[in-house]
């Protein structure tokens, strides 16, 4: 009997000596611990994703240019078929075609006037492509601030509770701090997503702008070619 009691006691001591496995927590449960400040952060994330997808699709449509577009324009203008060239440009839905269409409308005027007209159209097309990009820049700036604000509010609540109750054990403080840091981490991640998305879209716009400039220069060369 004594042997069994001794064995049972040793087993309990051994079990107590083994550290308990850390409690696993899901990502969603972790995010819920961030408090009410997480809802504005969720809204900022949705806005950033929506703006990024909408602008990405618009920029891709704008940058889609047929490889033989300028060749057909050149052939029509060189053969004197200006109407066909303008009809092609007018029925092609991209910034380059709209610039070329404006240039064709100004054929017969001085080259400087044609370039100015095409440049004005190009500026308008650039504005249309860059529209709402400032929203991504705004999200990239304010999301981390919201996160830090949530952490500060949480820390104030934590230390106020400690001061009120007098409970300042290590577990209480550590548990409170890590849950309050969730908002900062979330805000930084959302800000990083918006920042990367903004830079990626800006790069795509720059590529499209280069295509527009190259096509504009080629069109001016076409107009000047017969006079060389």
Report how far apart the termini are: 116 Å
Overall form: rod-shaped
User: Uncertain runs with pLDDT below 50, 5 residues or more?
Assistant: 2-6, 13-22
Total strand count, please? 0
Structural class: mainly alpha
Strand content: under 5%
Query: How would you spell out the order of helices and strands?
Result: HHHHHHHHH
What is the residue-averaged pLDDT?
79
Describe this protein's structure.
Helices cover 82% and strands 0% of the residues. By secondary structure, it is an all-alpha fold. The radius of gyration is 32 Å and the shape is rod-shaped. The relative contact order is 0.15. Residues 2-6 and 13-22 have low confidence and may be disordered.
Structure in a nutshell:
With 228 residues, the chain is mostly helical.
Task: Give me the secondary-structure topology.
Blueprint: H1 2-17, H2 27-32, H3 38-63, H4 69-78, H5 82-90, H6 95-105, H7 111-130, H8 133-165, H9 170-224
Helix pairs in contact: 3-8, 3-9, 4-5, 4-9, 5-6, 6-7, 6-9, 7-9, 8-9
What features would you highlight for this structure?
mainly alpha; 228 residues; rod-shaped; disordered N terminus; 82% helix
